[in-house]
Amino acid sequence: MEISHTEENYLKAIFKISEKKGKAASTNAISSEMKTSAASVTDMVKRLSEKELIHYERYKGVTLTRHGLRIATHLIRKHRLWEVFLVDKLSFNWDEVHEIAEQLEHIKSPELVERLDEYLGTPKFDPHGDPIPDKEGNFAERKQVLLADMKAGETGIVVGVQDHTTAFLQYLDRMQLVLGTSLQVLECFDYDESLKIRIGNGREETLSKKVSQNLFVQKEV
C-alpha cells in the first residue's frame, strides 16, 4: 500500500497530539498541528480510515491503528536520527535541523535507516532531548520534570525542550541553557510564577513561567 508524504505527516501529527494529550486527537487539533483547513482534515481522515491507518469516532476523535502507529513511529525514528546526524556530524545548530529532517524523514530505505542508526552509535535521544524509537517502535524512557515543577533548592540537568520553535531554541542558546547544562532553583516567585535559577557556571537568571514550562530537567538527588 502506497502512503504519500502528506499522509505520513498526518499520521505523525496524530501520534504527537495523542501522546501529548493522552487521548484521541480531535480534528481541530489536527487542523492546528498541520496548519490546514478543517475541510482538508476531514478529507484526509476519510482517506486514512479507508486505508485502515486510523480509527475515527465522531465527537471522540482520531486514533492510530496498529499499522498507522508503526508508520508514525518509524517516521519519527527517521526524523530524529537525521537530526542527530545533522547536529553531530554536519555541525548544524539545533535550531536549524527540523525543516531539513522533515524532508529526509520520507526516504523509504529501511537499510539506510539502520545503517544510520549504527553509524551514530544507536542514540536514544535527539538534539532536542526527544526519545528516538528503536526499530521495534519502543521509546527510551527517563525520569524528567518540567523546570516549572521544581522547588527552591532543587538541582538538575537540562535534558529536553517542549517548545521546538527556532525562537525558543535561539533564546536558550543566548541564555546558555542548552542540553546538559546544570542548574539550581534559587527562588520561586508567586506573583508571576517566574523562577530565579543559578546556571552551572554560577550566573544567576530569572526565567519566566513560559520558559520554565518548556524546559525538561532531570533532577539530581
From TrEMBL:
Keywords: Activator, Cytoplasm, DNA-binding, Manganese, Repressor, Transcription, Transcription regulation. It comes from the Bacteria. The keyword Manganese applies. It is found in: Cytoplasm. Residues 1-65 form the HTH dtxR-type domain. GO terms for molecular function: DNA binding; DNA-binding transcription factor activity; protein dimerization activity; transition metal ion binding. One of its GO terms (cellular component) is cytoplasm. Pfam families: Fe_dep_repr_C, Fe_dep_repress, FeoA. The keyword Transcription applies. InterPro entries: DtxR_MntR_Metal-Reg, Fe-transptr_FeoA-like, Fe_dep_repressor, Fe_dep_repressor_sf, FeoA_core_dom, HTH_DTXR, Iron_dep_repressor, WH-like_DNA-bd_sf. Transmembrane segments: none annotated. Belongs to the DtxR/MntR family. PANTHER family: IRON (METAL) DEPENDENT REPRESSOR, DTXR FAMILY, TRANSCRIPTIONAL REGULATOR MNTR. Homodimer. In the presence of manganese, represses expression of mntH and mntS. Up-regulates expression of mntP. This is Transcriptional regulator MntR. It comes from Phaeodactylibacter luteus. The lineage of its organism: Bacteria, Pseudomonadati, Bacteroidota, Saprospiria, Saprospirales.
